[in-house]
Amino acid sequence: MANPILSLFGHSPIKPLQNHMHTSLQCVELLVPFFQAVIKEDWETVEATYNSIAKLEGDADNQKQDIRLHLPKSLFMPINRSDLIQLLSKQDKICNTAKDIAGIMLGRKQVVPKKISTDMTAYVKSAVAVAVEAKVVIDELDELIGSGFGGREIDRINRCITKLEKAEDKNDKRQITLRAKLHEIEADLPPVDAMFMYKTIETIGNLADCAQSAGEQIQVIIAR
Amino acid sequence: MEVLNEYGQILLILAIIFGVFMAWGVGANDVANAMGTSVGSGAITLKQAIIIAMIFEFAGAYLAGGEVTATIRKGIIDPLTLQGTPEYLVYGMLSALLAAGTWLLIASILGWPVSTTHSIVGAIVGFAAVAISVDAVNWSKVGTIAASWIVSPVLAGTISYMLFKSVQRLILDTEAPFENAKRYVPVYMFMVGFMITMVTLIKGLKHVLKDIGFTLNYFEMSLVAAAAGILVSIVGSIMLTRVKRIEAIEAEDRFANVEKVFAVLMVFTACAMAFAHGSNDVANAVGPMAAAIATIKSGAVTAKSSMPAWILLVGGVGIVIGLVTYGYKVMATIGTKITELTPSRGFAATLGASATVVLASGIGLPISTTHTLVGAVLGVGLARGLAAINLRIVATIFTSWVITLPAGAILAIIFFYIFKAIFS
C-alpha cells in the first residue's frame, strides 16, 4: 500500500556514496602491501594482493551501479544530481587506477630497482595519503546536510580540502624526486622495464590526481 | 416527515454505524500519517505515539473541532433548500459517509494516497448537487474549501521552511550547537503551547465557557495563551536538563547530541500534531453523522441545531479503535522506514503542518492533514534540510486528488438513490 508520507522520503544517496568511497580507499590502501611484496619479489603475495584489489574494485563497481539505480530524476535533493553522479565516477576512478597499476606490475612481473625501492614505497604511501584525505572530505557530506549547509560546516570542508591539496602537493614532489632517481639509473635497466617504470610512476600520480579531484568535487557541490 | 418517524430508529443506528466506520478509517490511516513522522525520527516510541494520539486527538476534536464539524454539517449544503424533505439530508449524509468509506477502502487496496477530507467533501457536494439540486450546494463555501487545499500545503511548507532556517541560523550553524539547542528549543516549545492554547480559547472553550458566563477578549486570551506557553517551555526545560552531552557519539555524527535535544521538542510537536489532526479530521466522520442524527431527532432541517457531546465521543472512540486495531501497524511501518528525518527536521515539518491545520480548523476549513504534512516536509527540503525527497509523490497526490472528488461524488449519488428507494 502506498503511503504518501512514506513514499515521500527517498533513499538518501549520501551514506551509500560514502560507503563507496570507503571501499575505494580500502582498495587503494592495498597498494602499500602490494608494492612491499613486489620489492621483495614475492610474486605469490603480489598475486594474492592483486586479487584482493580486483575484488574490492569489483565491489566498488557494484556499489556504484546500485547508487545510480537509486538516483531517479524525480528525487529532490539539496545537492545537484549530476554533481553527485560525477563525484561517484571520480571516486570510482581512484580504485580503477589502483587496479590498473597492480595489473601492469603483476602482468609484467615488474621488478622495482633496488636503488629506488625506498623512494617508491614512500611515493605509493603519499599517493594513498591523498586518497585518505579525499575520504575525509567526502565523509563530511552527511554533516553538511545535517547542518543544513551551514557556513561553519562549509569552512570546515574547505579546511579539509586544503589538507587534501597539501597531500597531493607532497605526492607531486615525491614524483619528481623519484623520476630523477630513476633517470640516473635508467641506462642500466632494460629499456622496456625503464619505460614501464616511468609509466607506473605516472599512473600512481594519476591516482593521486583522481583522489584530489574527487575530494574537490565537494567544492563544486557546496558552490551551487 | 413520515419517513423519519417510521424508520427513525433504523436510520439513527445506520448513521452511528457509518460514522464509526468512517472514524475507524480516520484512526486507521490518517492518524498514522500525522504521527508517523514523529515515530520515524526516533523522538517517541510507538507506544508513546499511540498514547499521545489518543489524548490529543480527543482534546483537539472536543476543544477545537467545532468549526470544521459545523462546516461539514451545514456549511456545504444550504439547509433551507431541504426544509420540505428533511429525509433527503439524512439519506445524503449516510450516503456521503458510506461513499467516502468505500472509496477510501478501494483506494487503499489500489495504493492511492487519497484524503479522507477530499472524499467526504466530494461525496457531500455530489449528492447535494445531483440528487437534490445544484442550488443546494453552497458553492462559494466549496470554492473556499477547494482553495484551502492548495493554500494549506503551501502555507505549511512556508512555515516549516522558516522554522528550519531559524534552526540553522540559531543552532546548527553555530560554534556551540548543543548549548544553543538547549537555549532556543524552549522558545519553540513556547510556540507550541501558545498556539494550542490560543486556538482552544478562541474556538473550543467558547461553548464551554459561555455556559458559565465567562468571556475573554483577545488580549486576555493572548495573556492566558502566553502563560500556557511559558508553562509548557518550563516543563520542557526540566525535561531538557536530563539530556546530557555525550562526546563519544559525536565521532560518528557531530549533531547526534543536538538531535537528542530536538527529540525532546518533538514530543511536544507530536502532541500539537495530534491535537491539530483531531481538530480537523474528526469532523469528517462526526460532521455527517451529527447532521443525520440531528435531523432524525428533530424531524426537520434546522440551521441552528446544537451538537450533542456524545456524538463527538462516538467519533473519538471510533478513531481510537481504528488506531488500536490497524493504525499502529501503519504507524510502525512509517516509523521504521523513515530514517532520514532527524528530530531537528521532523519538528520543523510537524510544527509547520500542525500550525496550518489548527489555523484551518479555527476558520472552519476541512483540509487534508496528510497533504499539509507533505507540503511541510517539502518546505524543509527546500531549506536544504533533507537528503532526498521523492517528488513523484506530489504528482501522485495531485492525481488522486483529481480522481477522489468525482469518485466520492458518484458513489454518494448511487448510495443516495439506493437509500431513497429503500426508505421512501
Overview features:
heterodimer; A: 224 residues; mainly alpha; Methane Monooxygenase Hydroxylase, Chain G, domain 1; 1% strand; elongated; B: 13 helices; globular
Characterize the structure shown.
- Chain A has nine helices and one strand, in the order H-H-H-H-E-H-H-H-H-H.
- Chain A is mainly α and 224 residues long.
- Chain A has a single domain (12-223), classed as Phosphate transport system protein phou homolog 2, domain 2 (Methane Monooxygenase Hydroxylase, Chain G, domain 1, Up-down Bundle), CATH 1.20.58.220.
- In chain A, helix 6 packs antiparallel against helix 8.
- Chain A is elongated and about 70 Å long.
- The model of chain A has no long low-confidence stretch (mean pLDDT 94).
- Chain B is mostly helical and 424 residues long.
- Chain B has one domain (2-423).
- Chain B is built from 13 helices and one strand, in the order H-H-H-H-H-H-H-H-H-H-H-H-E-H.
- Chain B has helices spanning 2-40, 46-64, 66-75, 86-110, 116-132, 139-172, 177-211, 218-241, 256-298, 309-337, 343-363, 369-382, 392-423; one strand at residues 389-390.
- The longest helix of chain B has 43 residues, at 256-298.
- Chain B is globular and about 75 Å long.
- Chain B starts with a helix and ends with a helix.
- The model of chain B has no long low-confidence stretch (mean pLDDT 88).
- Chain A binds chain B through residues 1-14, 72, 74-78, 142-143, 145-153, and chain B through 32-33, 36-37, 108-109, 111-113, 164, 167-168, 172-175, 253-255, 330, 333-334, 337-338, 340-342, 370-371, 373-374, 377-378, 381, 383-393, 396-397.
Task: Show the helix and strand layout.
The complex is a heterodimer of chains A (224) and B (424).
Chain A: H1 4-8, H2 14-29, H3 31-40, H4 43-69, E1 75-76, H5 81-108, H6 117-138, H7 141-146, H8 151-185, H9 191-223
Helix pairs in contact in A: 2-4, 2-5, 2-6, 3-4, 3-6, 4-5, 5-9, 6-8, 6-9, 8-9
Chain B: H1 2-40, H2 46-64, H3 66-75, H4 86-110, H5 116-132, H6 139-172, H7 177-211, H8 218-241, H9 256-298, H10 309-337, H11 343-363, H12 369-382, E1 389-390, H13 392-423
Helix pairs in contact in B: 1-2, 1-4, 1-9, 1-10, 2-7, 2-9, 2-10, 3-9, 4-5, 4-9, 4-13, 5-13, 6-7, 6-11, 6-12, 7-8, 7-9, 7-11, 9-10, 9-11, 11-12
